[in-house]
Amino acid sequence: EPEVTQTPSHQVTQMGQEVILRCVPISNHLYFYWYRQILGQKVEFLVSFYNNEISEKSEIFDDQFSVERPDGSNFTLKIRSTKLEDSAMYFCASSDVGNEQFFGPGTRLTVL
Amino acid sequence: GIQVEQSPPDLILQEGANSTLRCNFSDSVNNLQWFHQNPWGQLINLFYIPSGTKQNGRLSATTVATERYSLLYISSSQTTDSGVYFCAVERLDDYKLSFGAGTTVTVRA
């Protein structure tokens, strides 16, 4: 069964460093998403991406964040100059048009 | 934005018991999904159910879109059912899921 994959599973970084979280969506899906979940809290939407551009973004997704689809399979989230409060689980998801979203296993980001 | 409220926030069950989790939402939706978050933090898709009723083994779900709520039923609960259950919705012309705060289910042997 096709699935969304994410790497790495756990990333530890120092405050102020840049991190890139990687995702491989399900191959025939057209919509891609990033969400995050701070420990003990609910899942929050960050950004959606379609046809090589951002469809929608939340207030959280400020200039510190960027997304890219560098090739036909990968979808990345870059966080510049990480802060302590960026520590969270980051989930990638993908969907076909107007349909169910499928989530990857997540990347746990720890900022020290 | 759309509001999603889940109840109860916490649920403790004895193995073998049945339970009902509720999700209320504040606007019309074209997508509603139920997830189970396991102890490793993974979000497991349970149901894609913008309307109607579906069953999958011991789990079933019903969404009454006109009244803006959805119910998740767990029957004959097992310890492996423990975890957090999230409801998430998407409005027409939105490109995002809005999640509720979740129901934490603990099933005791």
Descriptive account of the structure:
The complex is a heterodimer of chains A (112) and B (109). The model of chain A has no long low-confidence stretch (mean pLDDT 94). Chain A has strands at residues 5-7, 10-13, 19-24, 31-37, 44-50, 53-57, 65-68, 75-79, 88-95, 101-103, 107-111. Chain A is built from no helices and eleven strands. Helices cover 0% and strands 51% of the residues of chain A. In chain A, the strands form two sheets. In chain A, strands 2, 4, 5, 6, 9, 10 and 11 form a seven-stranded mixed beta sheet that branches. In chain A, strands 1-3-8-7 form a four-stranded antiparallel beta sheet, with no helix packed on it. With 109 residues, chain B is mainly beta. Helix content of chain B is 0%, strand content 57%. Chain B has strands at residues 4-7, 10-14, 19-25, 31-37, 43-48, 52-56, 59-64, 69-74, 83-90, 98-99, 103-108. In chain B, strands 2, 4, 5, 9, 10 and 11 form a six-stranded mixed beta sheet that branches. Chain A binds chain B through residues 31, 33, 35, 37, 42-45, 48, 50, 55-56, 58, 89, 91, 93, 98-103, 105-106, 108, and chain B through 30-31, 33, 35, 40-43, 45, 48, 86, 88, 90, 94-102.
